[in-house]
Amino acid sequence: MSTPKISVYSLSDLKNTTDDALPNYLTSLKFQQSHFLADVRLALGYSAVVIAGVTFYADYKLGWDATKYWTFWAVVAYFILNGALTYWIWGVEKGKIFTGEINDTLISIASSVTKHKPVYNLQVRYGKAGKQLQVLKLSAPFTLWFDSDGYFVATPFQQWLATEIPIVGEADPLKADKGAAKKEQDQATNPQPTKGSEDLIKAPIDGASSSGARSRKTKKPT
């Protein structure tokens, strides 16, 4: 199935499309996804909606005088539920897009972006239950898996995940190997200058500048 085309200038579309693709890839590798966080969020949200709906219906049918006592408590319950929902989203979920496990190893992944910066950030926590979890912080530009027309390309995204997250690489060694080979090839093609090489580049320039300055200083008009 082809992926829908999105605007490459919409940071939210880039993030949401990538967020949707990540759980699909992990579940295809037999990761068992936990829906507990989403279930609690939906339960809180729907409960608030039900309270609002029942209160409106009772007021419409019975009138304000007959329902004002219950309306007061319904409003209190509504705001409590919405407050709990807000806390759950920002204090518990914290941007998590996947929680689950594979082979008794727990994993949770949260995603984020910075405004006006087309870079996808992941915070990955994984490890055995009851032990200290390993924490990884990863970043990559969206251009790594979106083409110039705005189509999502799954293979480079999956290779990136398999290369950077050890337990994903163990579950998909073929993509991990290809991703690592591509990473090495990219580094060889576009090497980053080291501090030493920068000093070597700057030294002749600095020397030439100081030499030129001395010659200009000692030069006298004829």
Write the layout of secondary structure elements.
Layout lengths: L10 H18 L3 E2 L2 H27 L1 H30 L2 E7 L2 E10 L2 E12 L5 E8 L12 H11 L1 H6 L1 H17 L5 H24 L4
Antiparallel strand pairs: 1-2, 2-3, 3-4, 4-5
Structure description:
With 222 residues, this protein is α+β, with helices and mostly antiparallel strands. Helix content is 60%, strand content 18%. The chain has helices at 11-28, 36-62, 64-93, 154-164, 166-171, 173-189, 195-218; strands spanning 32-33, 96-102, 105-114, 117-128, 134-141. The chain has a 5-stranded antiparallel beta sheet, covered by helices on one side. The radius of gyration is 28 Å and the shape is elongated. Mean pLDDT is 86; it is low at 193-222.
Annotation keywords:
18% strand, 222 residues, disordered C terminus, alpha+beta, elongated, 7 helices
